[in-house]
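Exercise 7. Predict the joint structure of the components listed below.
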Amino acid sequence: MSKLLIIDDEEGIRKVLSISLANDGYDVSVAAGGEEGIEIFKKESPSIILTDIKMPGMDGVEALKQIKKLNPDAEVIMITGHGDMDSAIEALKLDASDFLNKPIKDEALSVALKRAEERITMKKKLEAYTYDLENMVRMATEEVKRRSDFQNKLITSSNDAVIAADEKGDIIIYNGGAERIFGYPRVEIIRKMNIDKLYPPAIVAEFRSGLKRRGDADLSKWKEVAIVAKDGGVVPARFSGSILYGEDEVIGSVGFFQDLREIKRLQEELIKSERLTATGQTVAGLAHYIKNILNGLKGGTYVLNVALGKNDRGKIRSGWTMIERNVGRISDLVLNLLAYSKERKPEPEDCFPNEIVEDVCALMELKARENNIEIERDLDPLIGEVFIDPKAIHRSLLNLVSNAIDACIFDPTANKHWRVKISTAVEENHLIRFEVTDNGIGMDKETKGRIFSAPFSTKGERGSGLGLLVTEKIIREIEGEISVESEPGKGTTFIICLPYQEALKNVKGL
Amino acid sequence: MSKKVLNVEDDVDITTFVSTVVEENGYIPIVAKDGEEGMRKVREERPDLIILDILMPRESGIKMYHELKMDPSLKDIPVVMLSAVSKRTFLRSQAALTEFGDETVPEPQEYLEKPVEPGDLAEIVKKILG
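Solution:
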């Protein structure tokens, strides 16, 4: 129920009005003058006040002024008599809500009250709206702040470098990860440095073309870059980036960098430890092989001593052969070790490749015959004199033919006709193809996979494991290719393809 | 008559060495370069002692040892293994053969790992042949 206050010095009006308004459902208070009215207003805070203008003591206009000071929202309706026009205008300025002329007509009164009620309701609604609106704005602001805080934290807490720049390339975001990679502190970068100065030139070029025209650069693929940090040091990093677009126009760019220093360090350590392991295995294998040669020498010395004591010429010869053979093995080993450890410069000269094959066959003939192995040749007569490295070919073929013979010796099949075949052929693109084929023991997949990778022997202490390594290295050094095909029980074929040039002699002749 | 010692070995250096030691101590050396030839010579020559290598082309010492010990007429010929392969590995390989159904064979008389000193080899040969 709305509270209502009537201020009028005429008791009759107070009575009539209060009875009528109480009937209408208002909680009515009355005051006989301005001063009393203010007191009651303070106590009751009515929402609607009807006040006469002309009153002894404090008049209606003054009462209005004071009420509005106490509560600007109070609805004050002025009761005006004839000749109150000036005061009415004054009241209007002071934000009076309405005017009722004396004598007060019921109809006018109810309209004025209705309007006042409406205004109160409106004000309340407005207040509620305003409150809601303020609340919503506050909540929205909080949400925005929360989100931006979240994104900020995302960027700052990222271990990777995140660097964003505006459309001119001036850097506006630069996180801790970026500080760690680039070495510059934030204060020297944000709004102070351009990507042109910070990024490696290749990346700058891409960003620039992307900033110039949409779709001109795709930076999204990760790639490795070398960052030059503040102290001049080079930091390996992985980079990916993006041009940022608004509706249509470019608004900036962002770059992501991952520090690869730790990964690189671990990789290097791994390689180093692998190399150490390989070296250890190599040394162990070689030591074993050398020990075996030493035993041969020792045995030879023993046999020679015994034979000398008895002056047994046959035995002297066999003791001496033992020593010779083992000296030969050790000098072979040393040659292989040197070939393996040193870079060898190719020494091409005019020569006949087919003749080199014949030389190698002649050297291996005895060992083959002793073990019932036939050496066959299939040499391309079109290969004449060419400019190629004869020593490299000789060493490689000797290793391969010697291996092929061993493959036959170690073949457990009974009564087989063992054969080692060497063939040559001219191929397109100035290549000569050498093939060494045996029908011996063959290799399984695992063995095949190991032959070129590290010193490796299937011949126990009778092989240094260096032969194929050296062969592969020699072939690589003269820009040739070596490959192998093998099947256990069937045999093995090694294929060497070597580039050659026309013999100098012939070229000069032209 | 002097006793015969058969050395089955593919490495000429070793056979020369072993033969010399055998001869020096008054026995007759015989050589074979793999298990196949070895078995043939065992039957032909009936040696009193066999000095056997393990890693050889064609027939290995692992197989030849097993064959010797499975043959009732040959199983009593004493065998000395002389190899770079360790004794443990050799015994394991013999045990592996029994998994294929073969009977268990006794261990060799002596097991020598290469390299061997002439004196040590002579001592063992003399101990067995008397």
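Discussion. Chain A touches chain B at residues 291-292, 295-296, 298-300, 302-303, 306-307, 315, 318-319, 321-322, 325-326, 409-412, 414, 460-462 (CB under 8 Å).
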